[in-house]
User: Fold this.
Amino acid sequence: MIKNFGFKFDNTYVDLPEIMATKLPPVAVKKPKLVVLNQTLADSLGLDFSESTDELNAEILSGNKLIEGSCPLAQAYCGHQFGHFVMLGDGRAILLGEHLDPKQQRWDIQLKGSGRTPYSRGGDGRAALGPMLREYIISEAIHFLNIPTTRSLAVVTTGEDVLRETNLKGAVLTRVASSHLRVGTFQYIAAKQDISALRTLIDYAIKRHYPELINAENKAIALFSAVMTRQINLIVNWMRVSFIHGVMNTDNMSISGESIDYGPCAFMDQYDTKTVFSSIDHYGRYAYGSQPVIGQWNLARFIESLFPLIDQDEKKAEKIASDLIANYEDLFANAFHKMMKNKLGMISDEDQDKRIISDLFKLMHKNQADYTNTFRYLINGKFPQKKLLSDPDFIIWEAEWKKRLSKNQNSEDAYKLMIKYNPVFIPRNHKVEEALFEAEKGNFSKFLLLCRIIKKPYDEDLNQEDYTKPAPASGRVYKTYCGT
Ligand code: AMP
Ligand code: MG
Assistant:
């Protein structure tokens, strides 16, 4: 048998200042049963569960048994939740340890739904099967769409019920992340006013995610700027594929620039920047089109937490911070523009590019066009949408866009760009709901099919046409509940 399943733990978080975490094991569950194992991810991590029994695998992936070398702990953090500052922490997650893969890359191995911790507040520390399978499928979809994200290694049912609106099957997800450092982790240290811990944490984040900054003159500023670049890249990529995170609280924004914490998230079908899915987001704070400005707001909270190490003079620190934050708008606009140009196959820079892009947005909105399929239609005419195509303004727009494409030096390159930036498959909400509904009843065939499709989101030849269609008007799912 492969010793330890191939886990090679090398734990560093546990050496950070004591206030940052609480050591404790997961709370055992009654009857763990493995329902999904991500073989591809296991292979890339150098893990092998094939030599062991299903029972032992379930014991390990539920936290009932600990792997040698793990040092379980719950991390402390804060967060602005819908704008309100709250002391949080892993209320239902345990970091088992940091695993070094065969390339010596470091990965947090975390169990989510693993029982109560000192940070649970009123919660039960548990998670339900549906939301854990949702995180599994969406995080894997985001990964294969070529967007940085935490991954999902496995889902295990616990044999226990969790009480939400009704009784639901309990489950534990194994999450894999390049770290679980969040904006909220820095806010936590700042709230404790522990400057020495703040310095340690900045060094730690740089070493783990931005080693090129080790010799930066001002590490706080360098770290902030690097995180800003990655978070902009992340949000631009979400918008490229019509993803709405749904809960962009500061505790859900990672320092590595990975997508993290998939709760009431979803992909938009018809183009409308006001689209919101979360039933708890009453004011549309985290709507599709609000994500850029919320990204900036969250980064402002991040830099505030770094103030003492930006400059000892508070006034100076504030000035530096507001200048840095002000850069966000141009950086975002440029990154977004570049992304949209790629989606439209526009290579050189032409005066009319901005207008062509914004006109297309207006036309998609006016005609309730499916965002994903509009771009696919432009590639090869294969996903036509009646209403959009019969709009005379769209016909004029399309002719102008084609004329604009003729300014590219190489039409083959434009085609390649469009294929690369425009997915055929996004996990359509009604298909996700359908798969989860069946899986909760014990039938995993639709879930597994969806898992296969999302692995090849850019492949038009998959023969899964049904999965390219937006929900029929009667079956639209507008809200993804946060009963997680
Ligand atoms: P989330 O909305 O999943 O990002 O969680 C926000 C905070 O609430 C985090 O600190 C979680 O650990 C905590 N939390 C969420 N659900 C539970 C639960 N069932 N029991 C305890 N803590 C929870
Ligand atoms: Mg969270």
Remarks:
- Residues 88-92, 119-120, 123-126, 247, 251-252, 261, 263, 484 surround adenosine monophosphate (ligand 1) (CB under 6 Å).
- The radius of gyration is 23 Å.
